[in-house]
Every structure is written in C-alpha cells, then in structure tokens.
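S.,

As promised, the KE4 run. Input:
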Amino acid sequence: MNKSHELFSKAKKLIPGGVNSPVRAFRSVGGTPFFTKKASGCRLTTADDKELIDYVCTWGPAIHGHDHPKIREAIGDALSHGTSFGTPGPAEVEMAELLVEVVPSVEKVRMCNSGTEATMSAIRLARGYTGKDKIIKFAGCYHGHVDSLLVKAGSGALTLGNPDSAGIPKSLAEETVVLPFNDTKAVEQAFKSQPNQIAAIIVEPFPANCGLILPLPGYLESLRRICTENNAILIFDEVMTGFRLGIGGVQELTQVIPDLTAMGKIIGGGLPVGAFGGKSEIMDQLAPLGPVYQAGTLSGNPLAMAAGIASLKMLRDDAPYKHLENTGQQLANGLREIAHDKGVPLQVPQIGSMYCLFFSEEKVNNYEQALSCNHESFNSVFHKMIEQGVYLPPSSYETCFISTKHTDHEVNHTLEAFSHSL
Ligand code: KE4
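Predicted complex:
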C-alpha cells in the first residue's frame, strides 16, 4: 500500500471521511485522495513523491504559486515578533488600507478568518441594516457553509449530492429564496411577490462552484438596478474572483459596484483569512459602533496579515493579469482544439486564470445545465491526467486555477496529457 493510502486509512479512523473539507475526499471522482507533503511553484509533491502540476492552487489562494519567497519572508519577519496579540496591530491597518485602495466598493473593511465567515457576516449585516430577513441566492452558487446559504449550494455540497445540507432548520431555509442564475425576470418576480421582505442578493458575480458560469450581458447590471430600486443590499461574493481576475475583482472589470463584498483566499496568501467590506454607512452598523455583532479571536492575525499583504502588493505592483489571461487562453484554446479533433463535446469557459471543463454539446449558462454535463467523462479524464502528472480539481463542479508559475512548459505538458486522456 502506498503512503497516501496508508495515511488515508489512518485518517478515516480519526477524521470524518478522512478529510477536513469534504471536496478533498475524491468522493465524486472516486479513488483514494493523494496526500501532499510539500508544494512549490505550480507543483505539489505527494506523500509518495509524485510531482503534480497543480490547477487547484489550494482552491484559489496560491495565485503566485506555492511557497513564494516574498510570502515566506513576510511570514518569517512577522513570526519574529510573535504569532497573535488579540489587540489591534499595525498590519491590520496596512491590510485595510490596501483593500480600500484596490476594491472599488470598499470604504471600510472587517477582517475575519474564512470566506464562510465573510459571507455569513455580510448577510447578517445586510439583515441588520435593512431590517428585512429574506436573502436571495442563486442555485449552484456556493458561499461557504453558512446555514442560510447551504440551500441549493455548489462546490462540495453539490459534489456530494447534498446541495441542501441536513441540519438547517426549515424556518431558516424559508428565509432563503433560491433563483436560477442569469434570469433577470426571476429576480424581478421575487421582489414583486415578496415586497419589502428581501434584505439582500448575494451572488458569486462569476459563479465558479458549479463549474465556471459567466453572466449573460447586462445580467449583473440588472441585479444592481433591482437592488437599488428595492432598497436591498447587493453583496458580491468575491472570495474566489477577488484579486484573481484583476486587482479589483469582477466589480472593477464590469464596473458593477455592490454594496458589500465578501473576500478571502488570495488575501491570506495561503493562511486563514476572510474579509468583508463596503459602504461606511453599512459597515458602521457593526459592533462596537452599531447593533450588528461580529467578532473573531484570530481576526487580523499578524502572520496571516503579513502573508496577505505580501500577496496583495505583488498583485498591485506587478499586475500579472495579462500573463494569467494569456496562459488561460492558451490552455482553453488548446483543450477545445484537442476535444474538437477527437469529436468529444467539450465546453471550456475561461476568464483570466480561471477555466473549467464541461463535457457538454451546449454552452453552460446555469446550474441545471451544469448538472446535465457528462460527469463520467470528467472523472475518467481526471484520473488519466493525474497518472500523467496533472492535478485538476477533484469534481466537475469546481473551477481550475492558474498561477503566475504555470509556464508554457506546464501548458504543453497539460495539453499533451489531455490528448492522451480522451
Ligand atoms: P471558505 O470558508 O472555504 O474559506 O470560503 C467559502 C467560500 C465562499 N465563497 C466562495 C465563492 C467560495 O468559493 C468559497 C470556498 N470555495 C471552495 C472551493 N470551491 C473551498 C474548497 C473547500 O470547501 O474545501
């Protein structure tokens, strides 16, 4: 038995499913998950010393690749002053200044420890600010494991076939209105039928947790208009897209400015960080100023701030987005060409350093269409690619990420492996 198998059988006796986050268990693609013992650049090294080109990038944070010297150095410097103070610290001010500078919607920001905390806090704040209870989300979007939002959720929930988690009281789930993405009429109808009850819309502006689905022209603008018309809060969940598609995220790309933004992943540089921010008038409703409570022992942790600040400054100063877009296009075009030449129906939506593989004749514009893709084809390709040293996300409901460390060499190897996997 190899080391990953050994570790997994031990882990399963101690940790539910042997993993600390469900999607890592390979349940939808089958087989035994490999264990990683180290990561550097765009590669992981497994417990069995197999090197894999990594298109998961620890689910987004590793946009500079793994173990980037500037991030390692920043953590090391911070470490020499201690690990956690439980008081305000200078690094939190520097992080807040950076986020206010680069994210268009953010006038004030609060740090927390995960994307889930960020979205959970943002919807509580929206409810507290508006005095309304209902929240609109979209089928297939995933906003972390927040009780109110684990309704028709994507990512691991969808992967495991339980998009509506057990343990969520019916009374709470009823406050969540789930609509199809890319359907403006459905949103207008929801506000019309529930006047003055809807506190907020929360949306992944480019949904990436049921594969990658891009908004139809004008759709995000319509969400902005409808929220404004109905005194509802528009929340962009940019935990995934933030800082990845441009330093200011989708809101900078599209100039559709939400009232609140949830952030995470990249701003932790690989350490646990989340944040939510927006208009001062709304943010000032948070304790200790206002009546909406939110807190966290390790929020603004100095090590995590150091890693996140280093990551953000490299993005702000080096602006690697053209390079990431070029690599993304090179990969996506190559994958489409290979599938076409082999007569395999494949859609490869791509934007910047994000892309996914939908084995489908049709373009995928929403959750229902994502569900009807050929998942067996994806699973077969997933395993054949791993055998050839390429690690795609272990679910056809996830999105692939490219880092600044993926070069032509890795792209060519990936396309070669894909061609041998069909
Ligand atoms: P975390 O609580 O996992 O830091 O963030 C939750 C979250 C919120 N919003 C969006 C748009 C997200 O994509 C996520 C988390 N993403 C998944 C991957 N699709 C994390 C992987 C996992 O659950 O292990």
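Residues 271 and 304 are 5 Å apart (CA to CA). The pocket of KE4 is lined by residues 21, 23, 59, 114-116, 119, 142-144, 155-156, 204, 209, 237, 239-240, 264, 398 (CB under 6 Å).

- D.
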